[in-house]
Amino acid sequence: MRTLETLEELDRVLADCDAAAAVSDDALRTVFTSFQMLPPPAPADPFSQEFRAHQLDLYRWIAGRDYALKNEATAFEIADAVRRPFPYATGSCQTVGEQLMAIGYLISRMELAPGSRVLEFGPGWGNTTLALAQTGMAVTAVDIEARFCELIRRRASLAGVTVDVVNSDFMWAEQTGKTYDVVLFFECFHHCDDHLRLLRALRRVLKPGGRILFAAEPVHADFPQPWGLRLDGQSLWSIRKFGWMELGFSERYFQQALALTGWRAEPMVSNDVPWMTIWTARNAREPIVLDAADRRFATQIGEKRSDGVHLTGQEGYGLFGPYMPLPAGDYVVSLGFSGETAGTAQIDVAIEKGSRVLARVDFGAEDLGGVQTVELPLHLDDAVTDLELRLHCAPGFTGIVRRAEFKLVAED
Description:
Layout: E1 2-3, H1 7-23, H2 25-32, E2 35-36, H3 49-63, H4 78-83, H5 93-110, E3 117-121, H6 127-134, E4 138-143, H7 146-159, E5 164-167, E6 180-186, H8 195-201, E7 206-215, E8 219-220, E9 227-229, H9 233-242, E10 247-250, H10 251-260, E11 263-268, E12 278-283, E13 288-291, E14 303-305, E15 308-312, E16 316-326, E17 329-342, E18 344-351, E19 356-364, E20 373-380, E21 384-393, E22 398-411
Parallel strand pairs: 1-2, 3-4, 3-6, 4-5, 6-7, 8-10
Antiparallel strand pairs: 7-12, 9-10, 11-12, 13-22, 14-15, 15-22, 16-21, 17-20, 17-22, 18-19, 18-21
Helix pairs in contact: 1-2, 1-9, 6-7
C-alpha cells in the first residue's frame, strides 16, 4: 500500500486509474487498493464547527474546489442506463454478484409489512427502488441528480410500477409534510456534508414506530478519526475526479451523533454477506421493549424459554444485557415478571462492561405489586453506547422474567 503525500503524486496515480478503467472495472478496483493518504491532525471536538471546517478545507485541497451540491452530479446516458444500469454496466460478475446479494440481504432485513411507505434517499440507479416498488411498497425516491430521477421514472414505467420521484437534496426532509414507515440510505448517507442537520430533520418524516436504515455506509470500528473524509484509493479518486463528498465514520461517533440528534442506533451483523453493514435507528423517545428471551440478553443461572427466563432459586445473575446505546436523559427502566415469584433480588444498570454502576435497587417479591413489575429511575448525563441491565438473584429467588422496558421520560 502506497501512502501519498502530495496532489502531484495523487494525480499520477489517478492517471493509472484511468488506464486501468480502460481495461475493465475489475482492473480499476484493483488499482484503488494500492494507494491511500493519511488524515492530517484535526480539532479535538468532532461536534464543533472547527472540526467540520477542517474537513471542508481538506476536501477543498483534494478536490481543488469548494464543496457544493452541484458537485454530486453524475454524467451518463439515460437510454444506455435503462438497458444496463450499474452494476451490470461494469461487466464484472464480482461487482454484479456482490451488489445483488447486498440488495437481497437489505430487503430481507427491512421486514416491511405489505404496502409500507418507504422514503429512499440517494437511490442512484434505482435498483433497490425498483425491487421495493415491485414488492408492493409505496416508495418515494429523492435524488439530487436529475438524470437519476429520469432513469428511475423510465425504469418504473417499464416495470409497470409507481415510484414517487423527487429531484432534490437530503434537506428535502426539512420541507415535506409526509411521513414514512422506513427511511433508507443505501451507500449515500456518507455524501451528506452536514449529517447532524440531516439526522435532526429526519424526525419530521418518520412515523411513530418507524426506522431509519443505513445500509453499506462506511461506519467502521477502526476508522482513523471520529468522522471525516475517507482517504482510501477509491474515495480519493471520487473526490479528486468528480468532486463527490466521501465521508466515513467511526462506530462510536456514529452512535453518539445519532444519540445527540434523538435516535437510538444499533448494527445488524450479517454472517452471510460480511461486506454488507446495516445500522438501524429508532426515535429515542419511544420506549424500548425487549423480551427477556431476546438474543441480546443472557442468563447465568436461569433457563431461556419462549415465554422468558425461568429462575429456580439459584444465586447469581438471572439476566444481563443488552449492551445497547442510549441518548442522554431521564429514564424509567423496568423488569416484568410472571408466575409465582418469591425471594429477594437486585437490579442495576451499568456501563463500561459492567464496571460502572449508574443506578441500583433491591426488591422482594412482595414489592412487585399486581403488575409484577419493578422499576428503576435512571439519569444519563451523556449518551452511552454499552448500557447493561442486570438482575442479580439472592438464594431462593424464583419466578419468570418476561420483559424489560427502557422509557425516556425527559430528554437531557
